[in-house]
Amino acid sequence: MVSMMQPVFKVFSLYLLLMISACQSKTDEVQQQAAEESPRLVVVVNYPLQFIVESLVGPEFQIMNPVPPNENPETWLPGNTTTQTIQQADLIVTNGADFADWVKKLSLPRSKVLRTSLVIKDALITVPDFEVHSHGAGGAHSHAGTVAFFWLDPRLMARQAEAIAERLIKLDPGSEKTIRVNLEKLNDSLKPLNHQLDQLREDYPGLNWYSRRPVYQYLAKRCDWTMHHLHWKSNEKPNQEDWKQLKTLQKQQKISLMLCESEPTEELVRELAEQGITVFTLDPLTVAPAQGDYVSNMQQQLTHLQMFLKQQQKNPLQKTNDDADSL
User: Which range is the signal sequence, renumbered to this chain (predicted)?
Assistant: First the structure.
């Protein structure tokens, strides 16, 4: 009796295995189809890259800028849950030039990372004294570094956008037509900014500016200006040593203009005016603006900059030779 049951049991076991295999195959197929139909997750490190991706894609993509609105995207670090989400993304669009500390500190899958600075290597600006600090009694010394705010020259932003578009198409070939059409629209939207910058270069060539740190070099190069960064810490009141260095530099340069990333205090504006320096605030837009987008905000800021420089040309803030000698 047992011998008769064995063939039946084997047949039943084989049938059961085939059923399980078929169900598993069907499950895998459903999961794969669901994965293909779900939006591709694209992670970006700052608002300008977010703006580019949002301008290019449709609902086939989900865009994630993990940096909270009240945090600095250059220094912010993600928690464990956010880190896991970033690592599982389909594409991670980074800026390069050491922008965003978390990019350097997290273990990111190389195959998923697009470093946009690589497509503009020929245009990168390196500052020899990017960072100056002291170690003990060894005195102050400097380190070279690459300026990371490429998007302040819309021509460089356009090159970033082209590289991002190609990578998005590779990720989802079915979206190629949409992405290429949107890339053309994005390039068209940048034309007024290029016109404004060309006009600034024509009307106000050769200007010298101060800034707290290396931020505006690509904007300055586009306008034929020169930036002198002061190594002042962001959002901190300049200390006595900072003012001493500025006064020494003013004896040599006598620069009358300064660009600030955020609105300076009235006290700082007054103290700079005492040194013959007038301040203009130009937000580099590393975080999303409260209203509008990159293009509309840059247009507005460049319009205000043109008005500011025109006013300075009419009524420059100047000091007498006696005042300059007293610095």
Answer: 1-25
Residues 9 and 307: their CA atoms lie apart, in Å, by 90
Give the amino acid at 324: A
- Token representation of residue 73: 């995207």
> Which three-class secondary structure state does DSSP give residue 130?
strand
Q: Is 223 exposed, middle or buried (0-12, 13-18, 19+ CB in 10 A)?
A: buried
Cβ-in-10-Å burial (0-12, 13-18, 19+) of 104 comes to exposed
Contacts of 272 (CB under 8 A, 6+ apart): 258, 264, 278, 279
Tokens of 253: 């340069």
Is the backbone of residue 243 left (phi > 0), alpha (psi -120 to 50) or beta?
Answer: alpha
For residue 64, which amino acid is it? M
| Single-letter amino acid, residue 77 | L
Q: Tokens in use for 139?
A: 């005195």
Task: Please name each of the domains of the chain with its CATH number.
Answer: 40-325 (3.40.50.1980)
- pLDDT single digits (tens) 120-148: 999 999 998 776 544 444 444 445 799 99
- CA dist list (Å): 166 to 43, 116, 189: 16, 12, 19
